User: Fold this.
Amino acid sequence: MSAYLARIDIFPIKSLDGVSLTQVTVLGSGALQGDRGYALFDRHHRFINGKRNAAVHSLRSRFEPPGQVVHCSHPGQSEATRFDLEADQEALETWLTAYFQEPVTIQENPQQGFPDDTQAVGPTVISTATLEQVAAWYGDLSLADLRRRFRTNLEIGGVPPFWEDRCFSSDSQAVCFRIGEVVLEGVNPCQRCIVPTRNPDTGVPKQDFQATFVSQRAATLPPWAPRSRFNHLYRLAVNSNIRGQGGKTLRVGDRVTIGD
Assistant:
């Protein structure tokens, strides 16, 4: 089977739940339209995210595609509250302030969003087989669980586990790969944070998650993965850039090839 784009996920509000799409437009910056376009900030202008605030994990957000309308709820709420991210921003800030018990403001960056890696603002890419393989390391985690923990944008089907480790080089030069009409530049293996170690619904850490991951990653690192790019092995997926292709579209089912 040839490699193809199997899934597209964007996260309209950074750190909150995602929404799956059948297609997405590339912005001029190389980011995906609507991906992490909004972010939550505290009174000190720091991100409110799962790294700093475990309450993020219990906050549910269901988006109406393509992500402009969100339904928010938490465990103490019987019914979700609907917000339009443009028209109802002040009301959403009030709702979030009550939930987090601290002042919350929402900011938007429609040109680039709020990526974790500001040197690689394009989508994160991983294969379905990789997520399935990592889930098998634990025994009690499913493919769906791994998707929610690692929060990648583009999922590639029809390839072996860790296929995406072909998409960066040992000398830090970008590796080009094509998805449909879009050429991406693979930059580096994505460094992971504490968030994947936690239950995405409760924030409760999974015992030995990171230690198991690192041990298994070392045992299964494929021969095509440039070992020199791993200063540590708690890395998964590839960060990318997309240059000069604003307005192009990525579609589920698009053929994927390495090399421009």
